[in-house]
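Changelog-adjacent note: as of this version, every example in the card shows the full chain rather than a window. The one below runs 277 residues end to end.
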Amino acid sequence: MANVTHKSYSNLISNAQEKFLTLLNQEIKFDEEADSWILMKTPWPILSLLVIYLLFVLKIGPQMMKKREAHNLKYAMMAYNLFQTLYNGYMISALFIPGAFQAAVDNVCHPVETDENRHIVKLFYIYSWHFVVSKISDLIDTVFFVLRKKQSHVSFLHVYHHVNMVITTWTYFRFFKGYQAVFCGLLNAFVHMVMYSYYFLSSLGPQMQKYLWWKIYITRLQIAQFLIGLTYGLHLYLFDCNFPRIFAIYMTADVLLFLYLFLIFYNKTYCKNVKAD
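Full-length structure tokens:
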């Protein structure tokens, strides 16, 4: 009886694995040109960057700064935040390329690639690559925290968010390349443009503090982004859109976790301060 049960269990696992691999093979999408771009050929450059990042911000950096004065990085941060603001604005500008917005709307659920819209597809790949690079450049945020001896800012949420976004965006562009991600990518770029513009203004000095009352709304905007993304991801899955179902499930679970973590952060940062007042 035990052997029969074990055999049935093994068959169930084997069938599930076979179905998963079949579904994965059906949903993976390759493009010879895009897959040959810098950082996209293999996962090793990205994984190496993330290992170096984690080692520095969690161990090497804090130890290095333990007996040193915090670095004054005002001008470096100003330049970085301005660059990030403009870079995310550049990605949003893709909407204003003739035909791009209409193509994004038309392909929101069932994308169709033809010879006529091939140039739009190429633009989508280019901006998607830039989006991946922008998630890598986001890692510098944490490096600044460490060098300024702001290690308390290097929270689980902060580090997980940055690492997860690099892995997720790289994986999506390398293996799935769905048009449907345009909406979420543009929304994320907009949120980051607002966020980095706030950071740029705050780096100008104390004289700007009275104009920076809207910090709380950045976190609210991020939470709204997750709610919209969750709704959108469920729409792609439930309405049987031509979107990788494996990635839709992953995206939904991932966004739910982000939403949970950001709500905890919001409660600790803002709600408790209000109660204390």
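Structural remarks: Residues 44-64+71-213 form one domain.
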